[in-house]
Amino acid sequence: xxxxxxxxYRDNDxxxxxxxxxxxxxxxxxxxxxxxxxxxxxxxxxYFDATGTAVGERTIILVNGRRxxxxxxxxxxxxxxxxxxxxxxxxxx
Amino acid sequence: xxxxxxxxxLRVNLSTGSIAKEPLNEKNANDYVGARGxxxxxFCDEVDPRIDAFSPENKLIFMTGPLTGTLATSSGRYNVVCxxxxxxxxxxxxxxxxxxxxxxxxxxxxxxxxxxxEKPVYLYINDGVVELRxxxxxxxxxxxxxxxxLEEKCGNxxxxxxxxxxxxxxxxxxxxxxxxxxxxxxxGVGAVMGSKNLKAVAVKGTGSVFVARPQKFFDVCTAARxxxxxxxxxxxxxxxxxxxxLVNIVNGVGGFPINNLKDGSFDxxxxxxxxxxxxxxxxxxxxxxxxxxxxxxxxxEIADGEFKSKGEGPEYEAGWSFGGDCGVHDxxxxxxxxxxxxxxxxxxxxxxxxxxxxxELFEKGYITEEEVGFPLRFGDATxxxxxxxxxxxxxxxxxxxxxxxxxxxxKYGHPELSMSVKKQEMPAYDGRAIQxxxxxxxxxxxxxxxxxxxxxxxxxxxxxxxxxPLVTEGKAATLKVFQDLTALCDSTGICLFTTxxxxxxxxxxxxxxAVGSDESDEDILLxxxxxWNLEKKFNQVAGVEKDTLPPRLLRETLPEGPAKGKVSExxxxxxxYYEVRGWNADGTVPETKYxxxxx
Lengths: 93, 599
Ligand code: SF4
Known about the structure:
The structure holds two protein chains of two kinds. Chain A has two helices and five strands; from the N terminus they run ββααβββ. Chain A is an alpha+beta fold. Chain A has a single domain, classed as Beta-grasp domain (Ubiquitin-like (UB roll)), CATH 3.10.20. In chain A, strands 2-1-5-3-4 form a five-stranded mixed sheet, with no helix packed on it. In chain A, a hairpin with a 2-residue loop joins β3 and β4. Chain B has a six-stranded mixed sheet, with helices on both faces. Chain B has a six-stranded mixed sheet with strand order 8-7-12-9-10-11, sandwiched between helices. Chain B has a three-stranded antiparallel sheet with strand order 13-14-15. In chain B, α1 packs across α2, α7 crosses α8 and α13 packs parallel to α17. The model of chain B has no long low-confidence stretch (mean pLDDT about 95). Classes of the chains: A alpha+beta, B alpha+beta.
């Protein structure tokens, strides 16, 4: 499974890299737990909302290019061949 | 006046040289707000929509809004209104910087240019002193040369709006540049200015803008500023990362058009031209327009290599047009092409998309190496920059590209390869992967454009709330609100980017306290709808073609990515859109709608 990070998620106090390849996990929630364990509280506070049961308000997650709100949110199931992309809320135009 | 407006319009007849100061039409200001709306109202009242855009009958209107130059955040905006030579539609091209506020400080809400000067002139405005002055020595200069020359002549406190040689020579997508790098970029307003032999407007003002209820205005502006500062986009992201930050996310959802929209994903290359890479490697510093707390502009340097250069931008749209759309992933080349557009005052969206179209014509064998002068293939960064430079300078094949992609592709018998709507190139989002933006392009009153109802906000960015980009449900109704709100926002004189962090309540509150109105939010939004319908009315009489998209988006499925297999479901959305607008099923506007809007 590939996880890609964007904008400040690439900073050293978050993932500190652009991309990782990792052992499969079952859901996005589990992915958040594993990554938060690895990268720390700051990462956790952005990835999850305050209740820890949804994606944080300042974060956008795509699984294979689909925003997780249109899949099964934080409970979206993941497969080994999936690509997960994690962005902070950004805008422009 | 003490209601956000100055109360005076300058009317300059370039044919006779007469300059008159006339009172602002207050009824129109009330009904059409300012800037885009009020400029369009003046224009529609005075100009027959069927005229040739390059005839002296076309007028060129520079108009500010009631919030321009006030305490309201990001209030540096003004609009240039005319009939577009590119699209034949009404055009209101929006720019930031400091020029708009300066015009108000000098004592004018707007300038209406009429007719055509016999020889090159520029307008000099120093508070009450307004003169047409000889610009023969400035003719032929690029934006930077002309700006510096005018600062030398007039004084460096003057703010300059100017065209370059591209505008003088009628490149159909030449813009008006102010404060060196800010652009009223789209629709060829600079070419209309050039057709009038008007090189520039230099302005300096020492006055102030007064509002109706100063304390309340201060309070609502302060609250809005705090709200914007607390928002992750307007308070941090947009300023720190710039608009190019969109490359990866739009590519992520499969909506970043590649190779003249033949493909829908830039795969691993997107990051090479992303905002992250721009910030990490080339950003010198951020820059903001008048009174802006966001500061999305960027000063950028390509320190070495073939494309060594320095300048401002690129914004996301230019990053796409010179990047993904041309299959180029060399950020230096993208920046260099964008800097050229600033220097020569041309629209980088149409420029890049026209190069991309020429690349497809070339690869399909419809144009030859002999005609272009060199091979022009997707992915060739050097050729992309060269083609851009030739167009900027009006050299060789660049003269044909200066007509825009539609006229160029038509000349070679393949107009279907122009990725344009109403002859203006669509920007950086694919309407097959992001259905609502396709509807927005098709219905935009100035042809292919993303800032006439930015559906990317809900469909990709989740602002104010997320909508699924692949479905059509609900898009028509949302788009109508976005179009009306955008028309209102543009007409007040504040920057559309503020709407990532604020909405109708905040904009309406600032408007009310500035002009001294007690109208409800809904009444104020209705002005946006009125402006939209006025623009539409002009286009109908002008005989502008119907709302549609290039055949590629309607018939050719996206070959890869998350939206693989999709086409634009435009017909479904259009039907619903005309219903929510209260228009006829064929997209025409019934008289009753105009009456209902008090037009
Ligand atoms: S947000 Fe950007 S474009 Fe808008 S006013 Fe501020 S600096 Fe200018």
